[in-house]
């Protein structure tokens, strides 16, 4: 088999995502899954669920994952990569454990995993690894074979992830009125997280203690800079830009990353900025945080201010992203076979690590996490 199409030792790919409700009756049970162990009353979850009820109780994320699944299968087939692709979620059907059970039943024993989170953080990386550990322990408890799972590296700066976002920003700029286009500012948005979690994101060498944000902030800033530079090269206009945050939750006394996108729009308007492009670089697809926090809430704030805004597209099922996933899989497969493959990355940070080291994005409380340097396997550990 040609090296560029050889997935060995992997015999399957698992698309691992967050999940979301697909009807009004799903909303509160879904939120109970998301917040399990935090003691949040059901009535409070009903209040939180209003964002979903505005969209008929349906999160767009599952439909978008189905589109990405189809795009991956199409790309694999067109490029001669004979590898089945499965899909499992953290918080809603198809659940991760059920999918792994199906994969084991289909005979798969060495599984590559792509999480729909591109950046380093506890919730975006280690928590998925904890979910994998729990699922593997459940299979073992059922007497089933336990496969080896390897999580593919962070892809925040892979060209197949970045270049579709560049095109999205260019399209949004082109959609603005002629008289405000050249003066538009770029607001690169991502999910806010507690500053304590941001400071411990990434490897121990990335950790900070002063609210600087560790790898989570550094990676977003690097991608934002790459996109802004590409837009300047394409348009000849140097658009000022800033990394801003959205979707804050949790207790108000706990510090989270700021500024919030709505506060940023108010500040830009007060400073006389004629227009803003909101570019959600922290999200793989247009799921609820994008549809509500940007398309609904932030857009309403801009209308209130009389500030022209445009929201650029996320990567979604772009064929270039599907090709990037194939490249990441084959890159990791070659590494596992002792080769030294090319590792594509834009920006200043370079390609991320394959194996999360000890102390990478540490958990709130000690829990086993698969696919990392500290994973002893399900025989020695059980789910918390």
TrEMBL record:
Residues involved in Fe(2+) binding: 191, 289
Protein family: Belongs to the ferrochelatase family.
Lineage: superkingdom: Bacteria
Binding site for Fe-coproporphyrin III: 59, 128
Record-listed E.C. numbers: 4.99.1.9
Keywords: Cytoplasm, Heme biosynthesis, Iron, Lyase, Metal-binding, Porphyrin biosynthesis
Chain segments annotated as transmembrane: none
Locations listed in the record: Cytoplasm
Claim: Ion transport is one of the keywords in the record: no
Protein species of origin: Streptomyces endophytica
Pathway this chain belongs to: Porphyrin-containing compound metabolism; protoheme biosynthesis
Name of encoding gene: cpfC
Biological role stated in the UniProt entry: Involved in coproporphyrin-dependent heme b biosynthesis. Catalyzes the insertion of ferrous iron into coproporphyrin III to form Fe-coproporphyrin III.
NCBIfam families listed in its UniProt record: PRK00035.2-1 (NF000689)
InterPro entries reported for this sequence: Ferrochelatase (IPR001015), Ferrochelatase_C (IPR033644), Ferrochelatase_N (IPR033659)
UniProt catalytic activity: Fe-coproporphyrin III + 2 H(+) = coproporphyrin III + Fe(2+)
Protein name: Coproporphyrin III ferrochelatase
């Amino acid at each position: 088999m040609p090296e560029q199409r050889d997935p060995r030792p992997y015999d399957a790919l698992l698309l691992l995502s967050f999940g979301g409700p697909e009807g009004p009756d799903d909303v509160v049970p879904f939120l109970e899954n998301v917040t399990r162990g935090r003691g949040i009353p059901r009535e409070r979850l009903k209040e939180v669920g209003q964002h979903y009820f505005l969209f008929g109780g349906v999160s767009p994320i599952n439909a978008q994952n189905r589109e990405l699944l189809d795009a991956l299968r199409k790309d694999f087939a067109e490029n001669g990569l004979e590898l089945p692709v499965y899909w499992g979620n953290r918080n809603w059907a198809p659940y991760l454990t059920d999918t792994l059970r199906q994969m084991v039943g289909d005979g798969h024993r060495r599984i590559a995993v792509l999480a729909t989170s591109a950046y380093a953080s506890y919730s975006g990386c280690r928590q998925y690894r904890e979910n994998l550990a729990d699922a593997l322990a459940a299979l073992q408890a059922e007497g089933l074979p336990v496969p080896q799972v390897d999580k593919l590296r962070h892809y925040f700066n892979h060209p197949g992830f970045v270049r579709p976002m560049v095109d999205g920003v260019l399209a949004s700029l082109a959609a603005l009125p002629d008289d405000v286009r050249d003066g538009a500012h770029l607001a690169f948005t991502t999910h806010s997280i507690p500053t304590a979690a941001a400071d411990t994101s990434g490897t121990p060498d990335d950790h900070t203690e002063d609210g600087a944000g560790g790898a989570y902030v550094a990676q977003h800033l690097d991608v934002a800079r790459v996109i802004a530079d590409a837009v300047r090269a394409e348009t000849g206009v140097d658009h000022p830009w800033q990394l801003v945050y959205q979707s804050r939750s949790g207790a108000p006394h706990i510090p989270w990353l700021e500024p919030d996108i709505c506060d940023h729009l108010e500040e830009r308007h007060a400073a006389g900025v004629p227009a803003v492009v909101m570019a959600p670089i922290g999200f793989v697809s247009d799921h609820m945080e994008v549809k509500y926090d940007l398309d609904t809430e932030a857009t309403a704030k801009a209308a209130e201010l009389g500030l022209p805004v445009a929201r650029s597209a996320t990567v979604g099922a772009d064929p270039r992203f599907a090709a990037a996933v194939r490249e990441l899989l084959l890159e990791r497969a070659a590494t596992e076979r002792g080769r030294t493959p090319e590792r594509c990355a834009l920006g200043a940070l370079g390609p991320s690590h394959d194996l999360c080291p000890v102390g990478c994005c540490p958990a709130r409380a000690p829990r086993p996490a698969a696919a990392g340097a500290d994973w002893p396997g399900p025989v020695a550990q059980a789910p918390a």
